[in-house]
Structures are given as C-alpha cells and as structure tokens.
From TrEMBL:
The keyword Coiled coil does not apply. Its cofactor is heme. This is Pisatin demethylase. Keywords: Heme, Iron, Membrane, Metal-binding, Transmembrane, Transmembrane helix. One of its GO terms (molecular function) is iron ion binding. Heme binds at C465. It holds the Pfam family p450. The chain crosses the membrane at residues 14-33. Belongs to the cytochrome P450 family. It comes from Verticillium dahliae.
Amino acid sequence: MSSLDLPDILPQKVLHVASLVLLAWVTWCVWAYTTSPLRKYPGPYLAGWTNLWRFYHVLNLDSHLVVARLHEKHGPVVRIGPNLLSLKDPALIKTIYKYQDDWVKTKFYHGGSTRNFAGKPIFNVFGLSDREDHARVRKPIGRLYSPAGALAIEKHVDKAISQFLAQLDQRFVNGPNAGVVCQLEQWFLYYAWDVVGDITFSQPFGYMKHGRDFDGTLADSEMAMNYFAAVGQIPLMDFAGAQNPLLKLISKAPFTTANAIARGHLVNRLAGNDKDKHDPSIPDFLDGFIEAQKLYPEVVCDGQIQSYLLINLIAGADTTAISLSSAIYFSLKHPSVWARLEEEVLAADLPDDDPASYKQARTLPYLNAVIRESMRLHPGVGMHLERYVPAGGLRLPDGSLVPAGSMVGMNPYIVNRTVVFGNDSGEFRPERWLQSPGERTEEYEKRLVEMNDAELSFGAGSRICGGRHIASLEMSKLIPTLIRRYRIELVNPDEEWVVKKGWFMRQTGVNVRLQRR
C-alpha cells in the first residue's frame, strides 16, 4: 500500500466524485436553459433555470400575487419554470381544459394520493392524470354530486345550519356574550367541516360544538394542503418528504389524520358499528359509495371508497368556508351591496328561524350574483391548474408554438380578473352578473356566456370540481339564513383581511359583531 492510507484517500475520492456530479449538473442546466424552446417567453431569470423559484413563492404564500404582477408586466404568457408557462388568456380555457382529452394533468397532482389497506398507492379522483382513468373512477359516484344528489343531502345541511345558529347565539349574541367579536372565517370553517362530516358519514366532527380545532384535524389538513402545493412544484421532493421511509418513522405523512378518519368510518359502517349514529332513511355519501361498490365491483374496492371519502374531507370544507367568508366580507366592505342584499333577503318569503331551503334561495338573483362575484374575485384555489401540452403543440394567440411535453397552466385568481369581466374586473361588483338597465336581453345573455366561459373558480371541462353543486347549496342556504336572523357588521370596516395562499386561498380577519333582529 502507498504512503497514503485509506482514510486519506477516501475524502479525496468523495470530493472528486462530488465535483464530477456538480459539473455534470451545471452542464446539464446550462444546456437545458440555452436550448429550451420556452426561452423566448418572458419571466424571471431564475425561473428559467430552476423550479426552486416557484417553490419558494408557494412556500412564501404569495405566488398568486407575484405571478399576477408578472402578467401585468409581460402580458398573457409568462415563464414561471424551466418547462412551465403561466397563461392568462381565457380564450385558451376551452382548448386546455374543456374539449380535448389529450391534455393530461401533470405530476403536480400526485401528491394528494392515498393508500389502500395493503399500503398500495391509489390516485384519487382529483389526482388521476389520464382522463379515461378519471372517467372510470368518477362514473360510479357521479350521480351523488349532481344537482339532484346535492338536494338529497339537504337535510344534513339543515341540521348543521341549525347547530351553527345555536352556537352563534350562545357564544356571540345572548346574555353576557352579546357583542363578543366573532372570527367569522374560523366559524365558517367549523361549520363547513361539520357539514362534510354529516353529509359524508352522518356524523359531524364537533368543531362547532367545541368552538375550536379540538383534535388538530384542521391544522393537520392545512399543513397537508400547503405541503401538497409546495412539493407539487418539484414532485421529486415528495420522495425526500412524505414518501421518505425514514421521515415516516419520526413524523406523520400529509393527510394521515384525514386518511385515518376515512378508514375508521368505512370500517365501522361495514361492520355495522355506527347504527346508533346513522339513519339509513337519510342517506349519506358513504351509503352512496358502498352502493357504488355493489354496482361497480371491478372499480370500487374498499381502498377506492377510502379515496372517495378522503376527497370529500380534504376538498369539501375549506373552499366552502373561504367562499362564505368572501361573500360576507366583500359585501360588508361595500355598504351599498350589503344594503341591497339585506333588502332582497328580508323581503323574500323565507323562514325567520329555520334554514332557508335551497329552492327558495335560488330565486334570489342578487344573492346569487353576490356569491358568483365573491368566488370570481377570490376563488377557493389560487394555484395553476397544470397540464402537459399534447402532440402537435399549442399554438398561442400570438402565433408562437409551445412544443409538446411542455407544461402550461392557468391560475383562477389571475384568469378571473381579465377584461372579459369588465374594465373594473379587479373590483367587487355583483351587478356584473345581472342584466343592466337598458341592456337588451340578447346582449346580456351573450355577456353572461362569455363570463361563464372565462371563469375558472371551479375549474373547467371534465375535471371541473365535482362538489360545486354541494358548495352552492351550502352557501345559498346559509347566507340568507344569517341575514334574516342577525344584523352583522365588521368590527373595523377600515381593516383589510389577510390572505394566506397555499393550495387554498385562506383568509383571516373577518371579525364581526352579531345582533339578533
């Protein structure tokens, strides 16, 4: 052996190998950057080199604002990753999301998958990339999320609304608690999660009863969705994070709590252990999922039912709470809007003490305009809905060709504020959804179609949000019920709310006082 023994040689070899790896990586980055067909599109210099740019801004909870400013500076096409373009032109929605089956979801969506009882990963309805696979998994349960399916669970929602009103009375209105400040966005979250529990397996979680996140599920869900949003920017990070077997030994994986809840309720229902809490004459989603298993056994295994349940839990509450908060906050910040909304609701033939029916609420045009406008201006989701460009590429309105294999995406927060909605698209104006004085009916109908086609609040096409009819039912019933029961005012009308955007566009600061009418 030479005068250099093994301990002296090893560090040199490790350093040599590391240097070669670093050199190869830098060489690849330079080659990829200089030869990329997306280099011609404007965007942050760093974003052209690495996805760490967008990863940072998602972690910083400001990506929607940063990319919106980039579009204001550069126009309808902005490069926000080495292989990702952000598109703003709503005319492209039909191409990318609606009519063609070959626009496949990217790996961004895979982070929300669950695992069956054997530990095998199951991509849920939301995360499935292939449209045929999505249609196959979606078909057995599609009727449950239809308008008729939403009406079928209205009794569950009525029960939750009644409990919500009782808790508001007790904590913020009656006796010594009269005038206590209500953090309404937090209580909407408790309400929405308890609704999800009731409509899914006939058992509310109990957040309204406790008045807090008593079991930590809401905090776990928020952390999981923020993780999902962040690692989706660099999907390989998931293997160093949630999929890392070493990390699993010392920390919970994202969605662990929600998965455990879903699995527990499925096991109890199949074993008949929840008969004291579940009335079969008032069916819930779990009843529907089990029925789907009987009709489609080749598709719906127990693991797939668990996946269906998980989607209800992680996607069915937060967006509804966000939209409810937006509707109340924006309306109160615009006194003329609130006055008109109050006038319409108070003049309507609605019950004073019981929840308004969905059928009744849908007859109130200004209420529905307020809900539409709130969701347009502040959608529940503020991330890019990514797709792979299929064979043949994408011809943009400027004539340039985005090659196949590239990724493109549109952000609802950005697209919902385009000029299609008017020159004041950044302002809250529910009247834009109604026929204007002097506007011919055909002109209004044409304008409404254009706005409907340009809005991405629920997504678009075959991958549109499955729970949109249920969310509409929850919001349309609760808002007029609150207005008929309470006088509502912001504690400080001059203060702005705070938006924390991970995957969801969460808000804080909707602080109100309530007084019984």
